[in-house]
Amino acid sequence: MKRRAKTSGFRVRHTLFRKYLLFSLTILLISFISLGVMMYIFVNSYWEREQKNNLVATAAKVAERVEDSWSSLSTFDIVTGRGELLKKPLAFMTGDVGSDILLVDTRGQCLDCTEGKRCIHIEQDLPSYVLGETADGEFFESGTLDGYYSEDYYTAGVPVFIADEEGNSSITAYCYVFAKATFASGLPSTFIKIFLISAGITLVLVILFVAVMSYQMVRPLRQMSAAAKRLAVGDFSVRVNVRSEDEIGELANAFNNMADSLSASEGMRRTFISNVSHELKTPMTSIAGFIDGILDGTIPPERQKHYMGIVSNEVKRLSRLVTSMLSLSRIDNGELKIHPANFDLFSTLISILAGFEQKILERNLRITGLEKFRSIRVYADPDLMYQVIYNLIENAVKFTNEGGYIDFGVEETRFDITVMITNSGDGIPPEDIRFIFDRFYKTDRSRSMDKKGMGLGLFIAKTIMRLHEGDIYVDSRVGEYTRFAFRLPTNVIRPNPRKKDAEGEYIETTIEPETEE
Asked: Is this model's pTM higher than 0.70 or not?
């Protein structure tokens, strides 16, 4: 049995949080370690300098006391009487010496040592290089003295000068002060302990802070992941709580906007499917019923022509539906292209208006403004412009009140041409105007007379006008009028009058819009 793979939401909830937390802690640990090493090197260097100064100063004091008391000692005391050479000097330095003291002769042999019987110096002479460096003035080293000691020591030494009977001074002995250089003692050890305690407390606090911050940063992503799953199963009511103004907040806002858009699109899609289903079912039922009636003789021959006319209208209605669906599909796929040609826009308008003559007469509508028109030669896609004008005239006829008017107007400038179609009637409420060009928008939401619209006509019309680098607008006043206007820029308008040449053949000429009469 195959195990189900973890979803992307699971990875967001766990892996991203862990990665961010581990990354932050890694940076923090590297910083602590670097800081600790650098500070330890600094403190240790400072500690060694202090040890050197203290031990050398102590050795100098002891050497001075030895020099003062040397003359009072007998030859036997000097040669064999260990403990006597340092007895008097140390008596004067009670509390000042915290280390062991060694006194050796010029060959490195031990004369006296405060370690007593434990002293290693009785059996071994000091290395010659130590004596040589001490003879130059002073000596200090941190280490084992080339293996002399089995562990690290701080060792400082100075020469002891003794004057003879003639008053001439010479190096008679060497005085050394030494102490163990162990990690567990001294300032570096104390510093390390303080640093580790402080770093540990800081690390715990920072871990808690980073964990909380990481969780706060990842939480919107977790919410978006959960919301995306709910969107995937059709729940478009879910939204993400936005509590920040950073990039995560912008992402959450974008997600909410996307959810709003999907919710609106889903609502329009459902409405559209319902409308299309109704639009398909009603004419097909009518067509099937009338044809069956003709075939089985239910409809008498004298009435067949009447019902065949109804069937023809329903077929045209289906054709318009299919055309709208194809246009929508071409728009979504980016396949809707314009194929411009020279044609008379006014002639197109008149031919479309003539197709609505019967409905205009039935509703007693007045047509005005056509007397202001003249031939308008344009360079655009004839079929697409026909679709735009047809849709606008159809809406005007449909929504004009009984006995009302439909007015046509045109405005030309050197930059563009605008055609306006105004009809009297109920108008469109201001809160609905901004939706009028949205796809699937059902106009019966604002105008109850539109029971058969699919909400695609004006959307397609606006798309067509934008393909021509133009636009379409709407203006309405509730209870008075509604005005649609579409604009074509001059870059697609090419006046193209025709005139005869000398042989009587027609030739095409192009004149500038501003000079056209």
From this structure: no
